[in-house]
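Customer escalation, tier 2.

The customer says the design service returned an amino acid string that "doesn't look like it belongs to this structure." They asked us to rerun it and document both sides in this ticket. The original structure tokens are below, unchanged.
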């Protein structure tokens, strides 16, 4: 019995120490932020990390950016070639694509929702995907389009005009840039508005481009014009080059920003293949093959929290060899208003 009382007294004497240790561990556990908060803090710290000359470029202090955008895009295709004495020529364009977009951006991480009214009411059947990334050092944009709305003038057998659903087009355009003067010149200030350009600056650009895709006659065209030849044109081009971009900041407190840039690239790899009625003719001798990418934008800041503007992006190309000539012009125009929170 004496031993039992000694044991109980020892346990009761340890209780205050055990309680103090438990309380300390609980406080440590509560002090450590949960994973989501640590992730948000890391994103915020990276957003405000200074990697630029603050005399020329600064970050907005607000972390949230909401933008309402109206986008319009269109693709023009001009091509001609002769295979086995069969000559074909195309001067075509897709139907204009108009979308309304709401974008939510938190510390450069953005999500957007786009609606095409014409697609909702069934008057637009094409599909288009656009992806853009604009950083201080590197920027790139990707466009994919699948279309059967190509219309225009055409010389293909006994056909001299093409209505929609006659040709099926799949085309991809990719452009990537490296900005040498990235500490003073800001692409995203003009095209994405997640930086401010405080003073005018320009930069030389190093870039790469890719354009590829195919155009093929459809079964609908054969049903309408049984004498029309079956044509399938496939192209792929990779270009390397460089250019120059300039941001002109002017007005009171640099409220206005005007951006222009151009980047020509020379095709270093090409593949053309034109098939007519099962007979094909591959690449001939290249004479002039280039891809051009042009950008322009204007932004007006009503205040640090409100801005509006417009931008225009275009990719065009000229591919010419002894058998096939292809020229593509893809443009995207945008008007936007933004608010920071």
């Amino acid at each position: 019995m004496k031993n039992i009382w000694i044991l109980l007294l020892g346990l009761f004497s340890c209780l205050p120490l055990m309680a103090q240790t438990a309380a300390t561990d609980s406080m440590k556990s509560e002090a450590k932020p949960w994973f989501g908060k640590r992730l948000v803090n890391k994103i915020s710290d990276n957003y405000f990390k200074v990697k630029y000359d603050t005399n020329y470029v600064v970050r907005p202090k607000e972390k949230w950016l909401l933008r309402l955008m109206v986008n319009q895009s269109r693709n023009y295709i001009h091509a001609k070639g002769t295979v086995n004495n069969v000559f074909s020529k195309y001067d075509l364009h897709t139907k204009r694509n108009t979308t309304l977009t709401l974008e939510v951006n938190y510390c450069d991480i953005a999500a957007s929702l786009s609606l095409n009214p014409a697609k909702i009411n069934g008057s637009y059947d094409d599909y288009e995907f656009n992806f853009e990334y604009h950083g201080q050092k590197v920027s790139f944009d990707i466009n994919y389009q699948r279309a059967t709305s190509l219309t225009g003038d055409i010389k293909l057998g006994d056909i001299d005009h093409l209505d929609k659903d006659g040709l099926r087009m799949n085309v991809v355009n990719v452009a990537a840039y490296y900005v040498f003067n990235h500490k003073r010149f800001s692409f995203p200030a003009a095209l994405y508005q997640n930086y401010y350009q405080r003073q005018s600056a320009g930069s030389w650009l190093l870039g790469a481009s890719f354009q590829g895709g195919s155009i093929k006659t459809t079964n609908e065209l054969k049903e309408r014009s049984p004498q029309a030849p079956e044509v399938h044109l496939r192209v792929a081009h990779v270009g390397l080059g460089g250019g120059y971009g300039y941001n002109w900041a002017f007005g009171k407190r640099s409220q206005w920003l005007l951006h222009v840039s151009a980047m020509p690239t020379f095709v270093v790899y090409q593949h053309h293949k034109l098939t007519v009625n099962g007979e094909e003719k591959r690449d001939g001798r290249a004479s002039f093959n280039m891809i051009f990418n042009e950008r322009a934008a204007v932004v007006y800041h009503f205040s640090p929290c409100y801005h509006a503007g417009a931008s225009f992006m275009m990719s065009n190309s000229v591919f010419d060899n002894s058998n096939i000539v292809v020229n593509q012009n893809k443009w995207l125009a945008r008007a936007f208003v933004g608010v920071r929170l």
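Tier 2 assessment: The sequence is consistent with the input. The two ends are 72 Å apart (CA to CA). Helices lie at 2-31, 35-48, 117-120, 187-191, 219-224. Sent an explanation to the customer and offered a walkthrough call.
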